[in-house]
Amino acid sequence: ADSPLATPWIEDFQPEFALPEYPRPQMVREEWLNLNGLWEFAVLSRDEGSPDRFPETILVPFPVESALSGLGRRVTEDERLWYRRRFKMPASWKGRQVLMHFGAVDWETTVYVNGREMEHHTGGYDGFSVDITPALEPGRIQEIVVSVWDPSDTGGQPVGKQHKEPRGIWYTPSSGIWQTVWIEPVPEVSIAGFRLIPDVDDQSLKINLATRGEARDLVIEAVAFSEGREAGRAIGQPGEDLHLAVEDPRLWTPDDPYLYTLKLSLKRGEEVLDSVDSYFA
Q: Is 0.70 surpassed by the pTM of this model?
């Protein structure tokens, strides 16, 4: 789409490389599938059902109003956006649960997988995830359909400086999918998230990790690394505070913004059920 501010970067942009980097650097898994790129697209009135046809294409994850989306069009509060994407599940993921993540969608979102409604979310700035495993159909191409309604400044939700009539300090709205969409396979019991709290005086890192699924008889192993060498190790229980000591730590400063790397593993005995990489300072 035409842009009021075209740059050489825009001219050289290729849809297959739309935000290809891993979207969650604080909690990295090795296996994942990026669903950014060209999606089928349709705009209907808000009260209509799902479209029979998707006559346009849009480049995800750029807002409909942006030039990089390929559309650069305005959306009214009486319209609903519809996205469709088909993909093939990697064969190596068979037997595992599959999570779909949306970095952000503005504003009210419904997610369908193979015709089955899997998630309804409201909020334009927070990410959300859904376990799509029950809707997946082995041996076929999987279909995702996403419905989005965004009233922008005519609704009651937080919109920042978005405005239907941008001027002065008010900006063009950012409707629809505007952060990375991706999927990843996880075991039945997996790491759901964690909090990291460094304690400079105690020279330690407090870790509290939550799991998905029944965490009975499981332990968490945390290993810190500095320039590839082990800098500390601790073992504890999911849901409990784990204290990882780091002797004589190299402290982060603006002049030396040093980061330690961290590997967290969920284990049953010597078997590693799930592991993620992170970082801390």
A: yes
